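Reagents: none. Just compute today. Alpha-acetolactate decarboxylase.
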Amino acid sequence: MKTLFEHGTLATLMAANLDGTITLEELLKHGSQGLGTFVGLDGEVVILDGEVYQAVSSGKVNKITDMKQKLPFASVHFPETQYRIQLDEGNFEIVNKELPKKYELQNVFAAINLKGEFPFIHTRIAAKQVKPYPSLLEVAQDQAEFTYENIKGTIVGYYAPEIFNSVTAGGWHLHFISDDRQVAGHILEFRGENLTGNLEVFDTFEQHFPVEDQEFRRGTVNLETLKADIAASEGNDD
Ligand SMILES: [Zn+2]
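Predicted 3D structure written out:
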């Protein structure tokens, strides 16, 4: 059994439930690789080899060692080599169109890890919000964006089938971290070279809910605008 563990849902983030509802300590029991965000959408989290990094909106990357820190949303798993990937060139066009076709991902969850050189990468980092929290869409309209050239690093992320778009982001959701751990973020666009890594397909999706959180329990999601809002705030170029 290969399990992808997710805490919180993208829909409730969209509905501005940004309080932390799982500790890193608890989250890391379910995986050593993944992505997420901290309380109030404080940055973009990358978890790699059990180490936790937070890119904050100034562009700085913090290594997080306080396991009491909480997250409103995160996805993690324990990586195992399944399908080795080698791409002379990589970008969203290839990742969005070729990989789902080649590995028949349309109805499954998958993870990817790609390490290599990046002649170009365009990232965003959400800025920390305070209560009353705005919606993720409002945050996304005012996000910090960065571009880097000729940087070495690793992409980690997940693929979700379109039918799950709103539980998490449909399609690929990718974060980046540089080899020197000085640069990280949520990927909007990239061009990679000599990428090697691993693709994994999950047979189990474990959705964990913050049932103790009153705002989560009472929150309402606007289904009318949800998909368009997700596309506007999480979309990548392809
Ligand atoms: Zn992200």
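Residues 53 and 63 are 5 Å apart (CA to CA).
Action item: order primers for follow-up constructs.
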